[in-house]
Design a protein that fits this description.
Shape: elongated
Strand content: under 5%
Order of helices and strands: HHHHHH
Radius of gyration: 14 Å
Largest sheet: none
Number of helices: 6
Length: 92
């Protein structure tokens, strides 16, 4: 679900309702089985899609909005933290 809806801000409560688990238990089980909490996983999915889009030549501002970031600065910080380079350098 997080991979399909990566552009949306999926809440923990939404995931809990989909799975029939409590939010607390879902977060614990998800982190145990996947290695990161649901929010972090969704961020990683977004950044992977962003990297693919940049590799195809799309501009960082367009990519930021398309993958679900509220603004380009948040995208810029998250991308640099994950990949070690800014989206603009990755594009080049």
């Amino acid at each position: 679900y997080l991979q399909m809806c990566f552009r949306q801000n999926v809440t923990l409560e939404e995931l809990a309702a989909l799975t029939g688990l409590s939010s607390y238990y879902l977060c614990r089980v998800f982190a145990r089985d996947v290695g990161v909490p649901p929010h972090t996983y969704q961020l990683q999915v977004r950044l992977k899609h962003a990297a693919d889009m940049l590799a195809r030549g799309m501009q960082p501002a367009e990519v930021a909005l398309d993958v679900g970031f509220f603004d380009q600065s948040h995208f810029h910080r998250a991308f640099k933290k994950k990949f070690g380079v800014t989206p603009g350098k990755y594009l080049r």
